[in-house]
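Quick one: structure tokens for this chain, please?
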Amino acid sequence: MADSTRDMRRSVYERDLKAKFGNLELTEITHEDLRALTGAIVERGAPATAVHAREIVYQVYRWAIERGQKVESPAELVRPALVQEADLFRRQGAVAGANFAMLALWAIR
């Protein structure tokens, strides 16, 4: 792994993940928690960072599962594309004025 990639991941962990998840057991972190965290990161205008945060969580769980931990990864239910699309909706103000049909079509595409 390149030094710049490692440094970026460490920065995302320190800034966005450590305070929220750092003291929790793997079984205590839900996909709702991760979705809320990535949503907050998107809201502050950092969608790429939100995707990186989700990827770090995914990698942590993958590493643990490969070593025999019996846990489910919350990142499996928070797809990176949805994190990025949440930013698009935020920028367009689409969710506030959306009706069910609009959101349904967006969600199933």
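Residues 45 and 63 are 29 Å apart (CA to CA).
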